[in-house]
Amino acid sequence: MKLINKITIMLSIAFAAFTTSYAQIKNTKTETVKIYGNCEMCKKTIEKAGTIKNIAAVNWKEDTKLASITYDVTKTNQDEILKRVALAGYDSDKFLAPVDVYNNLPGCCQYNRVAKVAVKSENTSENNNSNEKPKVEVQETNQLKPVFDNYFAIKDALVGTNGNIASTKANELVASINAVKMDKLKMDVHLVWMKVWDDLKENAKHIADTKDTKNQRKHFMSLSKNMYQLMKISKTETPTYYQFCPMANDGKGANWLSKESVIKNPYYGTQMLSCGKTVETIK
User: Fold this and answer.
1) Residue where one domain finishes, among candidates 82, 109, 136
2) Which of 37, 107, 226, 227 could bond to 42 as cystine, CB 3.0-4.6 Å?
3) Shared-domain flag, residues 178 and 80
4) Is 197's pLDDT higher than 60?
5) In sequence order, which ranges of 129-266 are alpha helices (DSSP H)?
6) Based on the structure, what is the number of domains in the chain?
7) CATH number of the CATH domain containing 73
8) pLDDT digits (tens, 9 = 90+) for 244-270
9) C-alpha dist (Å) from residue 169 to 135, 143, 222, 275
10) Is the pTM of this model over 0.90?
11) Residue 139 DSSP code
């Protein structure tokens, strides 16, 4: 009886904590989504990854693989919650977990992954009876172009030490990041996008929120690091030059990306316009 009472008390405490976390969320929206997993250990990890105190709460069912997610619509959204879950190792129909993270899950948690291909082939009987090649539906690959273009526009504004234009272009960058349809990206690009998406948006917002080029340049350093990862995997149509200034960042150095091989330093502008060098060409 003592053991039963103890279990009952523990379940009551857990239920109370769970219902309290929901009760404290304002502006709520609740949605049901599929998240792949196997066991109680998966449940614990999924719910911990997706839950943020007073902002979002996740309840995942082992038998159905369905998760009920409740969140404050003014502070987060379904994509952000599922992204955190994916980065913890668990696929949804919208986001893929990075392969290395999935591989590091305990054996009992390594669920059967549902194949998600970047290219779909349409083989019809008409195609098979003719010499025509099967039609291939290729996922959108150029939807990142507005993201890259707005990044370069911010860089050009900082070269000209124009905080107003940098702020405007940073707002446009945020909009272009939000417009990206992640499920349309090729798988390798999708995985990198998931890793850098939050940081790209955060740094772009910081640049947009000020007209002070000194502060803008600080956040441009981080923006450039994440943009480099994305451009490197995306294989842009024209070469991109990854450049380095040894004087920036209090002498620690900082990188940026440019469509031009000629050095035009965004960290110092006309003060030291040609300070730096190209360290890599991305083709």
Assistant:
1) 109
2) 37
3) no
4) yes
5) 145-159, 163-179, 187-208, 213-234
6) 2
7) 3.30.70.100
8) 999 999 999 999 999 999 999 999 999
9) 39, 17, 16, 24
10) no
11) P
